[in-house]
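Below is how a single chain appears once it has passed through the pipeline. First comes the sequence as given, then the structure the pipeline wrote out for it. We keep one example in the README because the format questions we get most often are answered faster by looking than by reading.
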Amino acid sequence: MTSARPASATWASDARRVLDENWTGSSTVPSRGLYPHQWSWDSAFIAIGSRHLSVRRAQRELETLLAAQWGDGRIPHIVFNPSLPQGAYFPSPDFWRSSTAGAPAGAPAGIETSGIVQPPVHALAALLVHQADPAASARHGFLTRTYPRLAAWHRYLTDARDLGGQGLVSVVHPWEPGMDNSPCWDAPLARVEPVAPGTFQRADLDHGAASDRPTDLDYGRYVRLAADYRDGGYRDQWDTLAFVVEDPGVNALLIASEHALAEIAALVGADPSPHRARAARLTATLVDRLWDPTAGLFLCRDVRADTLVPELSAAGLLPLLVPDLPPETAAALIRTACGEHFGLGSAVRLVPSYDLLGPAFDPSRYWRGPAWLNVNWLLERGLRLHGEASRADALRSAALETAASSDFAEYVDPYTGEARGTRDFSWTAALALDLAVAAGH
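Resulting structure:
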């Protein structure tokens, strides 16, 4: 529970306060209580917003994360703060054992991290941070230093994670696409034997209502997958992975970041053509592998079963970020976003994380229906990219109003805007700030 907002404070100054309070001196925690370490895609979104406060701080946000990159190119989804006790978050550093179990994959010896990854928003974030002050970026050699690391990150995804062999990135844990508890994972997870109840101690329930969080059964399966991956030395080998899914959101963000990386390459004197070629290949394969014209949406593919998962998730709308998406596909996606399943501009003001009419829809439970500001920030960008400026403007206004009225909540009920999860959430504050600057506030 947070204290009441000062009546005289504007919401924009409050967004700055959230980011300042969650800043550790080298990175920003998503939430002091619930998420007290550094998270990968959170830091990318936070850098996008904090560039409006301090370009140097935004640079450092990304540089701190990239300093924990593994030798094989992966950027881990958590970088642990060594000053905090092991029980501050679960799974803790002594669960992941990155410096020992991850050593064959090049995990850093002096930094404890997780062993899984999150969506690749980082090159897009780096480009936007650079564009906020190109002179300061050049002075600090920001792009020159980050470009090789970002290129290695993308190579890891396109090479080691092409587990389906068809050219798309696969995720190996439900936490990797960022939409941890999505109904899209229910069928692939059903094959996973959970660890025994009582063998792990969740920390998240100390900071949020159980009705808003994943169930213990889901958590038992998450722990099983993470432990098996760790015990296999974090190797991306088909025969050792029980959960292998091609997610449209992850692949769309990789394509958008490949386009950003092409721009970065040109700025640092490298050849941008390999990034443009990779983006083109990924775009064609994304449409071929995951587009469902009947649903009017991109679907997840359960690679082990080689079937599309019929659940409708907001991840399936994120390919609106792809610049070269076929026009008829982009038009269909916009119709779906505004139709009965996602209700943008009619039933709801912010796009929910899951199908409003779906059998698993829950407006309160983590990624099974609530609206998240990062998803809506991405969709606002995608709508604008495909010529839907008026819809993008309306979504931007709704996002700003909801962020302010919810005390920068982690997520909200898509119908009422009621705050869910933790408050003073960093990416909510950061992305609201970015939208406000874009709107001229």
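The longest strand covers residues 38-39.

See the next section for the split statistics.
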